[in-house]
Each structure stands twice: as C-alpha cells, then as structure tokens.
C-alpha cells in the first residue's frame, strides 16, 4: 500500500510506499520508525479514516475461533495519541461514550464502563472529571475507553508518549497483563524500542519517509513478561538489532 497527501498550496507528500505487512490475530504487533515515517498515516488508513492512494487493507473475517463469530467483521477500537477526553463528562461517562453511541442502555454501559475502569485501576475515580486527573490517569481513561468496546483489534497510537518514565513503565506493565489476559490482536505504534519489545510478539521496523517496512522481527521472549525482561540477554540483542535498523533511518528523517 502507498499513500501520498495532496495539497493545493504545497507539493504532495509521499507518506508511505509499498508497505506490505500482516498483523497476526491474537498477537501484539508493534510498529516502530523514525518521526514522520508514516506510522500514524498507516493507522488512519487501517481505521478507514484515510483512503490509501494505492493498495488496500484486508481484515480476515471470523472463522469461529478466538471469540470471533464466523463471517463477522472484527470489532475495532483505537486509543489515540491525544486521548481526546470530553472535559464535561465524568470518567465513567467518557469511558461509556462509545457504548452510548452504539445505543447500549444506561445500566449496562455503566456496568461495562466500571469493569474497564477497574481493569486500568481507576476505581474510585469514576465520577471525577478529566481536569481533576493526572496525565497518567487520563491516559488510563483513554485505554479504558478502548477496552470497554471489547474490540477484537485494539489499535494503540503512542499510548504512553506524553508520560514521565516511571508512569510509562507502570502502564506498560499494566497493559502487558491486560493484553496477555485477553489475547487480543493489538497494533501498537510507538517511538520506544523497549516498549515495542516488551509488549510485542512482532516488531515492524519502518524506514524514514516515505515509510516502507525495513524488517519484521519476532520477539521470542516468553510470556508473561514483567518489566525485568529488559535484563534478559535476548532483549538486549533485539534492541541492538532494531536500533541498528533504525539508526540510519532516524538520521535520514532528520534531513527530510
Ligand atoms: N494531512 C496531511 N497532509 C499533508 N501531509 C501530511 C498529513 N498528515 C501527515 N502528513 C505528512 O506525512 C508524513 C507522515 O506523517 P505521520 O504523522 O503518519 O508520521 P508518523 O510516523 O506518525 O510521525 P510521528 O512519529 O512524528 O508521530 C509526514 O511527513 C507528515 O508531515
């Protein structure tokens, strides 16, 4: 698939060229790449918000396995980089927003929202407003809003990008546990090589813009993974391999 942004006032920008990748069901695929290489564009295309200039995205329909009804399209949810909480709605009402749009009754959506709020350890804050929460808590509300939809595919765009290092580590651990418990298909966009290895089953490494897939690596580290997996020799090897692939691309992206 390729994508070029056209503009009346500026020359066209080729964001992606000949990107071919597979995202295996029930696995976490992390996408890393230099800034501006087209990661978010790829996500927008996969979510159907931007139409690729060339090529297409195919989702495999349910075969009755993995909780997917036969022949049913996968349910999808996205946790966006700017988690876009509605400031005038409480945490519970923010989390339940998608269910409300889907027409679910008040009682049921409140119960589902509370389950998701508990899963991200925010019980007790359900009646708070976003303005009363820390950045890490708001990020967890964003995550709960994705989880509450019980998606078959969860897209995460830099879910912890704006957080301090300790909060980020803690949320990565929480997410790892949630993902392992749910066996969902997760597509994670991140700038962090450590995050990609810690959370991913596969890591797709992209080149500088126009983004292509430089390599796809399997993360052959056992699950469940705690953050101490970072001390594993294999973790270090994967880090070096990915950084080796990215190093020149990052330099190129700085000259782009
Ligand atoms: N709507 C748009 N119109 C024109 N160009 C765009 C548009 N959206 C993105 N681009 C350009 O396409 C390229 C890819 O952008 P994209 O946001 O997908 O990259 P990214 O890898 O997600 O970046 P980052 O890691 O910094 O978030 C960039 O050069 C960007 O400036």
UniProtKB/TrEMBL annotation:
Keyword annotations of the record: ATP-binding, Nucleotide-binding, Transport
Entry-linked Gene3D superfamilies: P-loop containing nucleotide triphosphate hydrolases
Domain ABC transporter: 1-233
A Gene Ontology molecular function term of the record: ATP hydrolysis activity
PROSITE patterns on file: ABC_TRANSPORTER_1, ABC_TRANSPORTER_2
InterPro entries per UniProt: AAA+_ATPase, ABC_transporter-like_ATP-bd, ABC_transporter-like_CS, ABC_transporter_ATP-bind, P-loop_NTPase
Highest taxon, organism lineage: Bacteria
Name listed for the protein in its UniProt record: ABC transporter ATP-binding protein
SUPFAM superfamilies for this protein: P-loop containing nucleoside triphosphate hydrolases
Family per similarity comment: Belongs to the ABC transporter superfamily.
């Amino acid at each position: 698939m390729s994508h070029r942004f056209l503009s009346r006032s500026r020359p066209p920008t080729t964001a992606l060229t000949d990107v071919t990748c597979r995202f295996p069901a029930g696995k976490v695929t992390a996408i890393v790449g230099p800034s501006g290489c087209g990661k978010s564009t790829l996500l927008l295309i996969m979510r159907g918000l931007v139409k690729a200039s060339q090529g297409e995205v195919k989702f495999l329909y349910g075969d009755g396995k993995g909780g997917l009804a036969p022949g049913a399209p996968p349910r999808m949810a996205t946790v966006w980089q700017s988690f876009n909480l509605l400031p005038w709605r409480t945490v519970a009402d923010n989390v339940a927003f998608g269910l409300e749009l889907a027409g679910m009754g008040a009682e049921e959506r409140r119960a589902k929202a509370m389950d998701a709020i508990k899963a991200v350890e925010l019980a007790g804050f359900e009646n708070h407003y976003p303005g009363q929460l820390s950045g890490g808590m708001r990020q967890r509300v964003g995550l709960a809003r994705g989880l509450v939809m019980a998606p078959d595919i969860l897209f995460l765009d830099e879910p912890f990008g704006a957080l301090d290092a300790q909060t980020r580590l803690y949320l990565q651990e929480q997410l790892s546990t949630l993902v392992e418990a749910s066996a969902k298909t997760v597509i994670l966009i991140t700038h962090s090589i450590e995050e990609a290895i810690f959370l991913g089953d596969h890591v797709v490494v992209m080149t500088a813009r126009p983004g292509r897939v430089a390599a796809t690596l399997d993360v052959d580290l056992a699950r469940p993974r705690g953050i101490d997996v970072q001390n594993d020799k294999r973790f270090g090897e994967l880090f070096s391999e990915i950084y080796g692939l990215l190093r020149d691309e990052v330099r190129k992206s700085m000259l782009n």
